[in-house]
Queue: 2 jobs
Job 1
Amino acid sequence: MQTTKNVYLDNAATTPLDKEVIAAMLPLMEQHFGNPSSTHAHGREVRAIVEQARKTVAELIHAKPAEIFFTSGGTESDNTFIRGVVETHGIQHIISSHLEHHAVSHTIEDLVKHGKVQAHWLNHDEKGVLDLNHLESLLQKHPKSLVSIMHGNNEIGNINPIERIGDLCAQHKAYFHSDTVQTMGHFELDMQKIKAHSVVGAAHKFHGPKGIGFMYMRKEARVQPFITGGSQEREMRGGTENVYGMVGLAKALELSLKGLEEHKKHILQLKALMIRLVKERFGDRIQFNGLSGDLDKSLYTVLNLSLPEHEANDMLLFKLDLSGVSASGGSACSSGAKIGSHVLQALNSDPKRGAVRFSFSKFNTEKDIYFAVDKLCEIYDMVSVS
Ligand SMILES: Cc1ncc(COP(=O)(O)O)c(C=O)c1O
């Protein structure tokens, strides 16, 4: 049952479930209810299903099943590795950037607040491109650090060169964690090539269920658990497993990667169409935040627009919502009730301009894009596109 008729262009926040994912989860809900920790037949059959899901995920990212730990999602995975590496390996310096998701930046800030680490924030330019020379000089000063740099930025879509960053970390014997929440299921991630000690995934970003994710962790970087309790997840995460979620996640990742080229081509066409339409309508008055306007250097799923100064900028997302378009974002403003985007603020984006993030999935159509741009034109008193 669809609850709203709005055109959904907020797929970086979450994606609709794939029907095949639901079909894969149903037998678990209807028949296989055993607790995988039980040693009797009911438990054993579910244990086998869980281990198969782990194997599927491992194979899809060219890792070993022993390197995959199921969690509740991106936030828990980031916390587990970042906090764990500090506690377990005595790390005292963390190098990261102000453009990270709060799951990473707030975790680091909390560690700093409790006097556990010193944080070093990487320089970047006004497009959000990270300064790798700065990274190198920080690594020279603080060799045994933790570097936490995301792969694809959830707000501005920038893709960071994690293979190169992994090489730099390896040269300086630093731990490397990458928040890959926005690229998992949308890019081929080969853990034989990326020298990260940890990457993460959240199923709801690639048409899987919410509340389930995973952390990939290399053996040599093994950390203490973040959630203690039972011996589930090989003593890395206590608590009875979210079995439906694990099966749904594995199926969603499999479907996403199997159809990757086709989905990418379709979504890229939608993004290119939106870029063309807004340029035609708004001309120079529109800007693309970060690298999101560059099809080769940004996530094909994300387009972040900076709109002209206009009275419509107040409550822009609300107006879009009322017009039938679900999108998100927010300007650089952080005063009053309007909570601004920390990423746009870090890019010194003009708070008087409106900003909106459109994010796409395989389920969107050209019609959705025309509709959304038409609504933007109406809100900004422009002639519509269709
Ligand atoms: C880059 C990034 N990291 C982490 C998260 C948090 O993931 P979750 O909501 O699954 O905890 C998100 C979700 O928006 C994200 O985009």
Job 2
Amino acid sequence: MDGDNPICSMSASNVRSSTIRDFLNDANLPGMISLAGGLPNRELFDVSGIKTACNTVLHRHPEAALQYGATEGQASLRRELVSLMAHRGIDTTADTIVVTTGSQQAIDLVARALLNPGDIVALERPSYLAAIQAFTLAGAKFWTMPSDADGVLTDRLPNFRTGDRRPKLAYLVTNFSNPSGTTLPLARRKALLAWAVENKVFILEDDPYGELRFRGHRIPALITLAAEIPGAERWCGYASSLSKIVAPGLRVGWLVLPNKLSDTVVRVKQALDLHTSSFVQEIAAEYLASSALSDRINLARERYRQHSDALVDALDNHLHAELTWNTPEGGMFVWATFKHNGDTSTLLPIARKEGVVFVPGIAFDPMTESRNSMRLSFATAGPAQLTEGICRLARAISEWRMQT
Ligand SMILES: Cc1ncc(COP(=O)(O)O)c(C=O)c1O
């Protein structure tokens, strides 16, 4: 014990550092091709559209933008989010939406509102790293749900008996998951809801990527499907964000939850930050009210489709003997796994020397497994760079095989 320094809480000390944030520095090294960061492509930011929205807000209603606001969020933004959700087939009203500071805060709020230290959270394997961090901070223990290339294997979920220790919360990214790129099929979504009702497990569906579908057809969200399954509406909530479709710097996300949980979340948020920036919320509302968003989303879909195709073609051409991977229908990620054993965290330093970085699978696994996998992001690098990045990765793998 270091008596001269304050002692951090156990839950704070247990939070693993974000390997991805560490890699963001590597990504900026001259000549480095980064397949590591999960940042949206900055060329997709609608700078002039946001500038116009910002000027309009300051011109037309500065008092709403510059004053303290309601913890639930600005009325203008909540109304716009209702329309955005309607496009996703989700039927809500403004008073059921809680605006959050990014969907990261949405996850944190649900964790704080629901979990006692030692409560179990069910996760996909692999799972979004910063959600693992938020649940760890709440003192959670983890249970991984059996999963395959389409996400959770719902027919393998156990039915808990009275008195069994069971998860209190299950967290899933249903569309183009980070990191695995998988999308949960319709039948599994319904089965998951039925399981949640039967076993009294609250499901938080996190959907920051759903709009970025560049192939196939939209699958209804869990909260849409919940209307068909008796009791399910009380056992699921929905989180989303403007980060991947407008800009992450806005830090605008939102939650739709059953009433009682929503009230608790609002009280918790009050204690955390009073409310998400009213200025930014008004800008976001103004931007959503303009017709700019749907064009931007179409642009993003087309761009990410080209990037995804370039990455998958390069994997086909250079690494089919070594790796298996999913071909994503949207989003920003490909999850690649060695056919034969191999720890991708030992490959990384060699890849870095070759001028390419990725995130080793171990970073996304609460049980620190998934060692033989890696997350490859196709959002930031262009098609030519992605192809070159995979050539470098192939060279690094040859060198690494010779050493191991
Ligand atoms: C699955 C998932 N959820 C939540 C977030 C947090 O996003 P934000 O807080 O910017 O909305 C991210 C960011 O990468 C993500 O991938």
